[in-house]
Write a structure and sequence with these properties.
The protein is an alpha+beta fold and 332 residues long. It folds into two domains: 69 residues, Rieske [2Fe-2S] iron-sulphur domain (Rieske Iron-sulfur Protein, 3-layer Sandwich), CATH 2.102.10.10; 195 residues, Naphthalene 1,2-dioxygenase Alpha Subunit, Chain A, domain 1 (Alpha-Beta Complex), CATH 3.90.380. Helices cover 22% and strands 25% of the residues. The strands form four sheets. Strands 11-12-13-14-15-16-10-17 form an eight-stranded mixed sheet. Strand 13 and strand 14 form a beta hairpin. The longest helix is centred in the middle third of the chain and has 18 residues. Bound molecules: FE2/S2 (inorganic) cluster and fe (ii) ion.
Amino acid sequence: MLFRDNRGHLGLLAEACAHRRASLVYGIPENEGLRCAYHGWLYNAEGRCLDQPGEPAASTFKNQIKTTAYPVQELGGLIFSYLGPEPVPLLPRYNVLVWDDVAGETNGTVIPCNWLQVMENLLDPLHVECLHGRYFTYVLKGKGGDQLQEFLARHAPSPMKKVRFDLFEHGIIERHMINNEEDESWRTGAPSFFPTTSLLGSPGGKSGSIIFVAPIDDTHTWFLLHMASRVSQLAAQESIPFFDVPGVDEAGKFITDTANGQDHMAVVSQGNITGRDLEHLGTSDQGIILYRELLLEQMERVERGEEPMNVYRDPAKNHIIDLPAITPDGRI
Ligand code: FES
Ligand SMILES: [Fe+2]
């Protein structure tokens, strides 16, 4: 339960009140924290209980109560929380989150499947030509009308001449070439910062995007795309619009005539947690294979008591995390 107290501090508490489990979603924000609507227990952002109106004034019972609470931080107009073991690391300062004077928006979709399927879709450029090209054409043909001509003329994905994946210090860079070596998708590529963040844009560019693949639980994932453009001070925003992008239509059917809807259909249709023992990976699945190797390697590190990749503790290394300026032939 995320709340902001009347002094502006953010807190994230377990939803059920520690007294008799009423939902704190209906709580009352006060100066010191959030007060439960049912019997009025008051919690601060650290989860400590500060007041219990029903107990005798001299009671120290409240001092024994601490509900689950997580640290919360704002960056770039978004609110982040850390749910892992202590000590709490630094919040990674990705470029689009630390630029001054930006205008942006965030889109989000809750996808009813495991996060790894969503992440693997990002490392699978081959699907673009089929799912967002051949299949898109098939769907539009079936619908009739003039959408198909418009799609074929303007939006159909061009074939990729080359695809490659490079490991870098933060994860994996996916590259594909449509025209030549100067393509941004080849020179800069799409870097995935292990485990679940990707940056899009060009080094030194005026705009960029960040994708967060946020696991909600084992079978639900929040896919978030935040886009930001550097603008003049006057055009900077007070708040960032958020759009909930549906994955299915009102009847609960997959939306197959948008690229987002097609991705949603593909990953959800793989099953809640897809049976990887039943797959048959080919040479074109190298991004997925590389990511799984990285995942296993990082899990082994954690088992040995070491920290995984991209845990930031040194503020000097976390000033701004930018797109890696490494071209496929190693030029900086
Ligand atoms: S259930 Fe919250 S104060 Fe009683
Ligand atoms: Fe896609």
